[in-house]
Write a structure and sequence with these properties.
heterodimer, A: 499 residues, two-stranded antiparallel sheet, 2 strands, globular, B: 140 residues, mainly alpha
């Protein structure tokens, strides 16, 4: 029973240890990485099925009763996030077989990747604020390592900025934890929900909420705290970019959703009003910022910022429909965004560059890759019937129902502007003739994408199509997650029992 | 006592922010150390100070008799110190390698990762240079 909750966190660490053992043998390390990710996906699927069937699952580690012990809890939101994490982990593990060269493997690529997955799952499953901090640190340290594992100049440069701002965010987070503990005397999230209601000093509580908002805002890449993101995400190998882009900012969004639906709901007009302004500003700056870039992955990086805005918009509106939209958007965006980064890696493999001006002709030379990009990119832009369309539709509808017309209008306009960026990549990298063909250069310095690259990318693209064509079941899960988020009592009851 | 410590935390935090914003990697590290300590002190104080009452349970008793010092913040700080130490060692190595690779500790002149938008290809050359050196470094 309890293993279901513990295994998604523990298994990646076991895989990391095994992969570390085979550090000097790249082939074995790859096999362990892939097998470990497959097992992780299986374990997370079991957890997801269990949550979908029986409702919220909790474990009190070490047998200490909540709120004193360490609580692991999985509601629908956590289960969905863990599940998507496992899917991305598997896709990137397979992709790495082709994308990551043996030098990086010897530096400990797969151990870092799996520690990252374990840390992310831990952050999604913990029911304790201090443990959330610890999992954030685990995840950060692994991501620091992954970001600079190639030891290129660019990576050091991007890595330094990434490390600096993220360390600062972590310090803010732990400051908030300390202050909140000082006011309530508890760290268990469910218990905090109850304890916060008895705090008299509402002004101080509001200040602490702002500290958490800033800390997670930096992690999530919220306006105006996102500058580290486009400065660093385009520097590591494509596989690393993909997993960082798919997971890290989303953990920040998850933490925001968790805290601002469970703990800081004493003054929704203030906290969520602030979030609404930040969300709309984030959507616009992200999408407008992307217009100036001509590098495949930098455009995608800046777009992460824009899409984080959509997710936070769902949280800020704080109606059940909007929360369902946020969860659906997370689910859709994590898959699509990672996949676009993986595809950028394929196009770089073919032409030897990420620069749009030097890319070209991929549509003629690699129809299948073009098709995969088409599906993912236009899903991101929100074209029906792809997954992004439903995600945006729900959020826009929620915005209209909540009377937030400006936010709804912003969501529509930003969606259109996203199309501009995606058509820019499509036109430059895929549609226009290859720049090398004019000057007589032979096309392609790198070579051809192999099965290890195409398999995970096709898988993720198929998943996008399935979510788009059969949105029903996914929507139902999102709605159930939203129901739990808008009724915190369910979560509190599950963690604390009958109290 | 709490008030004095609160002022101390404020001063240390202000100094750390000053150091971190100075645009120099070495100063940033010192700022980071100070900030970590300021936060640890804050957690310590937020557990309330109860001097001369250790949280010990006497023999033949199930729970401590009377009010005792809060032991939880100290456990939290210990965890935070350990994590902070790990991060600090990583930051030291990262900054040292960055200095080796880029030849500067001034964050304003670090523009390798973001230079290519004016001139496509500039970043690519950086890539090739770095790739040329990476096998040697990988062999270290």
């Amino acid at each position: 029973m309890s293993q279901v909750l513990v295994l998604p966190v523990v298994l990646p660490f076991a895989v990391a240890a095994a992969a570390l053992w085979y550090r000097d043998r790249p082939l074995e390390q790859n096999r362990i990485g892939m097998a470990g990710s497959l097992a992780h996906l299986a374990v997370c699927t079991v957890l997801f099925v269990r949550v979908a069937r029986d409702g919220i699952q909790t474990v009190q580690v070490g047998g200490w009763e909540a709120p004193f012990g360490i609580t692991l809890a999985a509601d629908h939101l956590s289960a969905v996030m863990v599940m998507v994490t496992a899917v991305l982990g598997l896709a990137v593990s397979i992709y790495s077989r082709s994308d990551i060269d043996p030098v990086l493997l010897r530096s400990g690529y797969h151990p870092l990747l799996h520690i990252l997955l374990g840390g992310v799952c831990g952050a999604f499953l913990t029911g304790d604020l201090f443990n959330l901090y610890v999992w954030f640190e685990v995840m950060l340290l692994a991501s620091f390592g992954l970001l600079v594992v190639g030891r290129e100049k660019r990576q050091f440069d991007g890595g330094v900025k990434y490390v600096m701002i993220n360390l600062f965010a972590t310090l803010l987070f732990i400051t908030g934890v300390g202050l909140l503990y000082g006011m309530t005397g508890t760290l268990n999230l469910a218990d905090l929900h109850l304890a916060v209601q008895h705090v008299d000093n509402r002004a101080l509580l509001g200040a602490v909420a702002a500290v958490f908002m800033t800390a997670f805002g930096i992690k999530a890449g919220l306006f105006p705290l996102f500058f580290w993101l486009p400065a660093s995400y385009h520097t590591p190998p494509a596989a690393v970019s993909a997993i960082l882009a798919g997971l890290l900012t989303k953990v920040g969004v998850y933490a925001l959703i968790r805290l601002f639906s469970l703990v800081f709901i004493f003054d929704v007009a203030y906290t969520h009003g602030l979030l609404l302004i930040a969300a709309v500003a984030t959507m616009f700056t992200g999408v407008l910022g992307a217009a100036g870039y001509y590098e495949f992955r930098r455009i995608l990086s800046v777009h992460i910022v824009s899409q984080v805005g959509y997710m936070v918009l769902g949280l800020a509106l704080f109606t059940p429909l909007a929360l369902a939209g946020a969860v659906f958007f997370l689910l859709h965006n994590m898959i699509v965004k990672s996949n676009l980064f993986l595809i950028s890696g394929i196009s770089a493999r073919i032409s030897g560059t990420f620069e749009l001006k030097r890319l070209g002709g991929l549509y003629h030379s690699h129809r299948f890759v073009a098709l995969l990009f088409f599906v993912s990119a236009f899903s991101l832009a929100g074209f029906p019937p792809l997954s992004g369309f439903w995600a945006k539709l729900i959020l826009i509808r929620a915005g209209l129902e909540a009377g937030a017309y400006i936010a709804a209008a912003a969501a529509v306009i930003v969606g259109l502007l996203t199309t501009y960026s995606m058509t820019k990549i499509w036109g430059q990298a895929f549609w226009k003739p290859s720049p090398g063909a004019d000057s007589g250069d032979s096309m392609g310095e790198g070579g051809q994408p192999d099965m290890w690259m195409l398999l995970p990318v096709s898988g993720l693209a198929c998943l996008t199509l399935v979510i788009g064509l059969v949105p029903g079941p996914f929507l139902e899960v999102a709605e159930r997650a939203a129901h739990e988020l808008s009724h915190p009592d369910i979560y509190v009851q599950a963690v604390l029992g009958g109290k | 006592m709490e008030t004095a410590l609160a002022f101390l935390i404020g001063i240390v935090a202000a100094a750390s922010v000053y150091l971190m914003l100075s645009g120099n990697l070495i100063r940033f590290i010192f700022g980071l150390v100070l900030a970590t300590n300021a936060v640890n002190l804050l957690i310590f104080v937020s557990g309330r100070l109860t001097p001369t009452r250790p949280p010990l349970i006497p023999e033949n008793a199930e729970a401590p008799l009377g009010p005792v010092a809060n032991a939880l913040p100290q456990a939290l700080i210990l965890t935070a110190i350990v994590i902070g130490f790990a991060l600090l060692s990583f930051v030291f190595i990262l900054f040292y390698r960055t200095y080796q690779a880029l030849g500067t500790v001034d964050t304003e002149s670090m523009r390798v990762a973001e230079s290519e938008e004016h001139e496509p290809g500039a970043g690519e050359e950086g890539d090739e240079n770095a790739e040329g050196t990476s096998p040697r470094e990988g062999a270290e």
